[in-house]
Structure to design on (1509 residues):
């Protein structure tokens, strides 16, 4: 029933009075006096003339126009429903795990507003170490060149079609293979096993860089089917035969931290490291005794070591120098006994067998070598070789790949590519349409690990978990989910992983990043007694040619899977300091013989050489590497990717002067460097990363190499680098700061008899505080005073801090051409100094004269001692940069930091000129918009710029920048403490570099907190300030480097 | 009337009368432009346009178009700045200091030397501007009241002192120059026939009527301004040198810099005056007014200042050794033996050795030799600044950052461009302004004119 009610607004309306009728019929209830207004004669007198009218019009028009103008609207859409865990401006951290085939790291992922922006080590985990490759991988997530959806027969496709095609292919007869890298995920293993069972396929694993020989020796000689877990923290003496265990060999992430714990001189004893190697590796550069040994002689060194330890002569001919070096190492190994450890980088079975025997003789098993059920590096190259043969024979009907790129890095990549055409159906689950994936029938995009659920098991006893930190950016699918779909049992991957794991502790596990499991380490199988006679004979027979080559992994590029990561490309190699390139390292003498250019500079390019191994050759620029064994060359693998222009990241290709990709005459993009995997040899299924007979010739052409450091010695300037030996250190270990002979307080000479010896001479010095003309900043004992201490003894130069800093602070990547012009933007760099054979005394003795001596001092020794010195803004209390800025854009904070106000900077560069450390970086161009940086700077990629840290401003053209000691973090930490109503807890605030440092060489904190770690380090008697005598009073202290290389 | 010994060479040759002086000086203004002038201004303005193009490209793209880098933050930009400022020293020295010392010979050269000063200072001021990363915010170096909070300039910074020094110097020089021009503008006003020209010169001459009162005021103002300008001659380059001297960079941090820079500036300024004067003398037909005697006097100044500069170089070397400071001594060893040794030895040859040739009277009085050497000196002085700036920076304290500087085409383009702009301005000046202080010149005709000297000589015999 509807109600027919009428409402009225008043009695007038109800009564419909005539007055109401009249009013309601009119538009305006009251009379409009229009006629009266117009007829008003005063109107005539108003002098709003034509001009006034125009003025009013003009004003109105302008006002209307201006009102229509507005600054471009940047839409930021607020959450309709705020996610529970996300507060804009507050970072969330998620524990996750990264595994890429060689690096395995427990990490914390920092996310802001739902996007991961940086990766730091998960300090609570024993696997919580990162290197440059790990923390820079956050860029890989945002690479817009990633495969964005499934591709079938070179056409964009749908998951349904791909799954249909895969199902159809699996029904065909023939050999069916799943080819992967070493699978560490129990869930993925389960899914693959299920797939293999359903389709009677076999699972073949191989690693990009193989460790087959060690695994084989472990299996055959020790009855262990696992990769030995090396415990460097228990080692007293370590001998490395060409194993770069601090950089890229084995589980370098673990080793680096563990070995650093043995290198604390304050304990009075330090581990000692001997390196026998051909290339100067990161490990060699940190060795106490380094001997240059050609690859062909490495087996002999192993045999000789074994001989020394067992007392049997095992080597027939060996030069005296090498012999005594081996004897020295053997002596220390003997002394260390079970605390000794010998590692060899070689994949030669004989050498590894000898090394196993040495370690057995030392009794190292159980102390420095442990069996933990380590599942790393389970790959088998011989299985890959037989697969390749089957493929070429047309026997393979189905090939599904995951986590591998055999078309690039298989020893017989060409054969593999040819065989791939014979395979009925091939699919590769990968991040990119890379060399392999792009040639497959189906290219299956998989999630980046930051988008994935997952579990990983490195060794028995614990499983590390992986959790997504962002929704998948592209139309990709977890690889395991693909296997499940193709098995015919599609399942959500998260549920599947939880099904593998113990669901009861799942949440706790996610929080911790790992959960324990009950896998026991398998007991050793019975093995027959090992004869070392055959291997010893074999290594004695090994002969090298005129030139021998070592193929190594660079610390930054690794096996080449992240070649498209601009930040890794721009991070200088810790040894050569070359960015963006691949090259042949050669000794000085060899280069002189070939007439190659020794000194590189902006206008002085490197000479190109052709290195031939068998019937394969590469053409690369030659780089003079001090410490390179004469007669040997080193070539990094991992380069030369994308030879057919595959989409593997824009930074993977060479660019021209305007930042555009260069193309060769066929229109193909030009890869950076050449693929040295092609030169890798084979020893019955074990890839050999050395070539014993190579030929080298100069092509007569040149190629520019961009180094960030052009000068290699510290010219005897011992106020920059201070070093001593353990033998000299220990007697004065408890000396007061400034007293010890190896870290004497600096003084300046004055013209008065200070020391009272009756003479005025160079010994008359006054301490530095006598010369200061400046007022002290009132920072000591007032509030906070942030400072940092860097232990040069611990720093290995691994460069994890460099990438961490880059990412934290949105430092621009500027590309090769700019680095070539000395315009790299690194806030944190690692200065690498070589020792020289020359000093002023020797120059004077040999009568060279001062000019000649300095020229000699510029040349590093043939086998130099190396210092890695992290260098960033020293936050001087009396900063020379601060006084010279005309607009006070750089000033001192009341917390002791030198701070830079970008907004105020007008770019005179005076501050940079006046910086004795040269740590200030100028924005020469608009890196975020200038086309020169289109293919290098992440900030120019719509996708990749998501990685930028919202807490740090992206600098504009024309301003100066430099290390801020991560001021955004100190502010955040102070605020958190303030909110909690507590003082800032020591260690709660960390800079990005300190956090990333795997060897804990960098300590950051509040110097005014007397209990803080940094204060203790700062007051250590090894602490000094670089260039102290300039009077700038840095707030960064360095700890004198102590080497354990006393002659005795 | 001042008396001058009759045996002295006359300053004005060729039996001039007052009328003739006016005719000679005004010839290029009232007459048609000489052919040589037209050719020169075409070339120089094209170069100037190219330079302006380079500057616009620089401003549009970023300072990175130059060859500077993380180690060498200044190179050609500040080299050019100091070089131009140095050149800008001669004008004021000639007009102010020589005025105070009653050196009558300055009258033939002071006008154009001052013009040169003005234009050189303009060129100099260009560089600190365009070398900035953010030129559009350059006004922040001025202590202006602002709404950026309590932001003020940093009075500790020598760059700020530069701003004050250069702007003061420029304004005083401009006023000084203009005051001198007033009577001469009046003469032109009275000469020219075109109504526009008459109007313009009329305005420019500020109603000068040549009354004794005017002359009296003119003399007084000149003297006062000379008094003000004289300390500026010394202050400007002293302050410019402090950009370097107050820093911590070995090779810059040197207490000798202020006097050394000032004498270097006078040295290069006089050389530039010689270069321009000798060309002007030829093309403008001023041989009777600017002649061997003037050239010789200026060459003597060049020997003196050049020698001071030479002594300064040697003192620096000595002190670098005597100090015993590793960085300091290396900086100087690196200068003469390092990658930029060629620049150092160019500097040494041009600045120390070449001016010593002027001890030989024949060379000192040879116009051709003077012309060549004046150019050599300015090349040397450019290299002096380049050596100080680039070789000190490229290898300072920390060897890990040692690098090199390579000039790009934009470095060259901007520098050549400023030469073009400078020449264009100077050529415009010679065409429209009286290039000699003609009214002042007339004051010495009686005492130092050719015929008068002859008469006096005869009389004395």
């Amino acid at each position: 029933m509807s109600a027919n009610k009428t409402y009225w607004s008043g009695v007038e309306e109800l009564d419909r009075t005539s007055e109401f009728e009249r009013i309601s019929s009119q538009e305006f209830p009251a009379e409009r006096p229009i006629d009266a207004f117009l007829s008003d004669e005063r109107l005539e007198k108003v002098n709003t003339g034509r001009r006034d009218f125009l003025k009013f019009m003009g004003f109105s028009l302008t006002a209307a126009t201006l009102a229509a103008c507005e600054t471009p609207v940047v839409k930021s859409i607020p959450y309709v429903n705020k996610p529970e865990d996300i507060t804009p401006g507050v970072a969330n951290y998620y524990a996750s795990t990264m595994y890429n085939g060689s690096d395995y790291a427990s990490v914390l992922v920092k996310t802001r507003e739902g996007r991961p922006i940086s990766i730091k080590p998960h300090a609570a985990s024993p696997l919580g170490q990162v290197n440059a490759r790990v923390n820079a991988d956050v860029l890989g997530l945002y690479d817009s060149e990633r495969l964005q959806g499934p591709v079938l027969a070179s056409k964009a496709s749908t998951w349904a079609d791909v799954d249909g095609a895969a199902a159809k292919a699996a029904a065909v007869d023939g050999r069916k293979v799943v080819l992967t890298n070493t699978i560490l995920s129990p869930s993925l293993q389960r899914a693959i096993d299920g797939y293999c069972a359903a389709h009677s396929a076999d699972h073949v694993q191989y690693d990009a860089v193989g460790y087959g020989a060690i695994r084989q020796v472990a299996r055959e000689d020790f009855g262990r089917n696992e990769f030995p877990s090396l415990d460097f923290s228990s080692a007293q003496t370590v001998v490395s035969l060409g194993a770069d265990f601090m950089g890229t060999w084995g589980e370098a992430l673990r080793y680096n931290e563990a070995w650093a714990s043995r290198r604390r001189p304050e304990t009075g004893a330090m581990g000692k490291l001997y390196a026998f190697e051909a290339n100067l590796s990161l490990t060699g550069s940190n060795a106490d005794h380094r001997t240059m040994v050609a690859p062909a002689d490495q087996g002999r060194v192993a045999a000789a070591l074994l001989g020394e330890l067992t007392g049997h002569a095992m080597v027939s001919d060996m030069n005296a120098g090498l012999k005594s070096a081996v004897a020295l190492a053997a002596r220390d190994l003997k002394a260390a006994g079970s605390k000794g450890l010998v590692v060899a980088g070689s994949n030669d079975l004989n050498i590894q067998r000898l090394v196993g025997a040495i370690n057995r003789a030392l009794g190292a098993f159980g102390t420095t070598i442990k069996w933990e059920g380590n599942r790393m590096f389970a790959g088998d190259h011989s299985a890959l070789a037989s697969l390749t043969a089957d493929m070429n024979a047309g026997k393979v009907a189905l090939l599904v790949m995951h986590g591998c790129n055999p078309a690039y890095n298989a020893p017989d990549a060409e054969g593999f590519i040819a065989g791939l055409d014979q395979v009925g159906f091939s699919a590769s689950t990968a991040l990119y349409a890379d060399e392999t994936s792009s040639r497959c029938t189906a290219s299956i995009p998989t999630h980046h690990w930051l988008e994935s659920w997952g579990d990983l098991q490195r060794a028995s006893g614990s499983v590390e978990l992986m959790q997504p930190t962002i929704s998948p950016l592209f139309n990709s699918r977890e690889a395991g989910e693909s296997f499940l779909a193709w098995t015919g049992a599609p399942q959500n991957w998260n549920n599947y992983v939880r099904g593998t794991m113990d669901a009861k502790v799942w949440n706790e596990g996610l929080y911790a990043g790992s959960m324990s499991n009950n896998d026991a380490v398998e007991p050793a199988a019975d093995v027959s007694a090992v004869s070392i006679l055959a291997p010893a004979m074999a290594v004695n027979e090994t002969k090298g040619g005129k030139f021998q080559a070592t193929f190594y992994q660079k610390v930054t590029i690794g096996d080449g899977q992240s070649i498209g990561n601009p930040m890794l490309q721009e991070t200088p190699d810790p040894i050569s300091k070359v960015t963006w390139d691949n090259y042949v390292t050669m000794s000085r003498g060899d280069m002189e013989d070939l007439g190659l250019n020794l000194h590189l500079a902006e206008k002085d390019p490197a000479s190109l050489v052709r290195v031939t191994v068998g019937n394969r050759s590469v053409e690369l620029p030659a780089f003079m590497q001090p410490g390179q064994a004469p007669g040997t060359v080193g070539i990094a693998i991992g380069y030369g990717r994308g030879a057919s222009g595959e989409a593997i990241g824009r930074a993977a290709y060479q660019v021209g002067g305007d930042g555009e990709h260069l193309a060769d005459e066929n229109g193909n993009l030009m890869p950076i460097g050449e693929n040295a995997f092609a030169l890798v040899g084979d020893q019955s299924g074990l890839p050999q990363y050395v070539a014993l007979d190579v030929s080298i010739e100069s092509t007569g052409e040149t190629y520019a190499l961009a180094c960030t450091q052009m000068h290699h010695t510290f010219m005897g300037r011992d106020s920059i680098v201070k070093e001593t030996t353990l033998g000299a250190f220990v007697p004065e270990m408890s000396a007061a700061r400034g007293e010890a002979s190896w870290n004497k307080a600096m003084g300046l000479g004055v013209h008065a008899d200070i020391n009272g010896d009756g003479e005025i001479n160079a010994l008359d010095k006054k301490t530095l505080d006598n010369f200061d003309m400046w007022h002290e900043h009132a920072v000591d004992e007032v509030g906070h005073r942030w400072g940092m201490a860097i232990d040069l003894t611990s720093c290995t130069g691994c460069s994890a801090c460099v990438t961490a800093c880059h990412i934290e602070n949105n430092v621009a990547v500027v590309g090769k051409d700019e680095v070539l012009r000395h315009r790299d933007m690194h806030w944190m760099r690692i200065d690498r100094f070589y020792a020289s054979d020359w000093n002023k005394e020797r120059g004077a003795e040999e009568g060279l004269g001062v000019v000649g001596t300095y020229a000699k001092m510029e040349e590093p020794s043939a086998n130099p001692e190396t210092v890695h010195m992290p260098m960033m803004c020293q936050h001087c209390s009396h900063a020379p940069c601060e006084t010279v800025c005309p607009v006070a854009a750089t000033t001192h904070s009341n917390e002791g930091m030198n701070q830079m106000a970008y907004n105020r900077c007008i770019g005179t560069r005076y501050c940079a000129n006046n910086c004795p450390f040269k740590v200030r970086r100028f924005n020469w161009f608009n890196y975020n918009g200038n086309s020169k940086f289109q293919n290098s700077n992440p900030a120019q990629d719509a996708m990749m710029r998501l990685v930028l840290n919202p807490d740090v401003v992206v600098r504009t053209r024309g301003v100066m920048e430099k290390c801020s000691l991560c001021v955004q973090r100190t502010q955040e930490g102070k605020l958190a403490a303030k909110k909690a109503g507590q003082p800032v807890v020591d260690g709660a605030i960390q800079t990005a570099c300190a956090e990333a440092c795997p060897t804990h060489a960098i300590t950051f904190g509040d110097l005014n907190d007397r209990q803080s770690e940094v204060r203790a380090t700062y007051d250590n008697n090894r602490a000094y300030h670089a260039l102290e005598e300039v009077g700038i009073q840095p707030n960064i202290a360095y700890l004198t480097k102590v080497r354990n290389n006393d002659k005795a | 009337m001042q008396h001058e010994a009759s045996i002295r060479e006359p300053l004005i040759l060729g039996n001039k009368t007052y009328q003739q002086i006016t005719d000679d000086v005004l010839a290029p203004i009232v007459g048609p432009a000489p052919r040589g002038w037209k050719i020169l201004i075409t070339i120089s303005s094209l170069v100037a346009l190219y330079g302006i193009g380079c500057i616009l490209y620089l401003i549009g793209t970023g300072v990175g178009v130059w060859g500077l880098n993380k180690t060498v933050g200044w190179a050609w930009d500040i080299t050019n700045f100091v070089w131009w400022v140095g050149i800008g020293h001669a004008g004021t020295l000639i007009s102010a200091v020589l005025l105070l010392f009653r050196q009558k010979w300055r009258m033939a050269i002071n006008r154009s030397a001052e013009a040169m000063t003005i234009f050189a200072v303009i060129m100099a001021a260009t560089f600190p501007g365009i070398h900035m990363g953010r030129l559009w915010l350059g006004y922040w170096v001025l202590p202006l009241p602002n709404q950026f909070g309590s932001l003020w300039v940093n009075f500790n910074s020598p760059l700020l002192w530069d701003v004050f020094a250069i702007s003061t110097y420029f304004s005083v020089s401009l006023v000084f120059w203009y005051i001198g021009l007033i009577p001469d503008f009046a003469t032109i006003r009275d000469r020219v026939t075109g109504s526009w020209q008459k109007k313009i010169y009329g305005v420019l001459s500020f109603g000068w009527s040549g009354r004794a009162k005017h002359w009296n005021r003119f003399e007084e103002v000149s003297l006062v301004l000379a008094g003000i300008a004289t300390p500026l001659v010394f202050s400007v380059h002293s302050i410019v040198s402090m950009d370097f001297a107050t820093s911590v960079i070995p090779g810059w941090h040197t207490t000798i810099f202020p006097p050394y820079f000032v004498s270097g500036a006078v040295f290069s300024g006089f050389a530039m005056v010689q270069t321009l004067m000798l060309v002007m003398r030829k093309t403008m037909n001023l041989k009777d007014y600017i002649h061997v005697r003037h050239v010789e006097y200026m060459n003597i100044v060049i020997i003196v200042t050049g020698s001071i500069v030479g002594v300064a170089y040697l003192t620096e070397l000595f002190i670098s050794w005597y100090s015993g400071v590793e960085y300091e001594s290396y900086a100087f060893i690196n200068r003469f033996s390092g990658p930029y040794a060629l620049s150092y030895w160019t500097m040494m040859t041009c600045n120390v050795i070449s001016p010593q040739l002027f001890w030989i009277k024949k060379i000192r009085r040879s116009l051709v030799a003077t012309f060549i050497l004046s150019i050599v000196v300015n090349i040397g002085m450019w290299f002096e600044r380049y050596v100080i700036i680039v070789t000190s920076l490229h290898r300072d304290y920390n060897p890990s950052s040692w690098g090199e500087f390579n000039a790009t085409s934009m470095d060259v383009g901007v520098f050549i461009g400023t030469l073009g702009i400078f020449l264009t301005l100077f050529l415009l000046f010679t065409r429209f302004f009286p290039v000699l202080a003609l009214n002042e010149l007339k004051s010495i005709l009686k005492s130092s004119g050719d015929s008068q000297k002859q008469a006096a000589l005869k009389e004395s015999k």
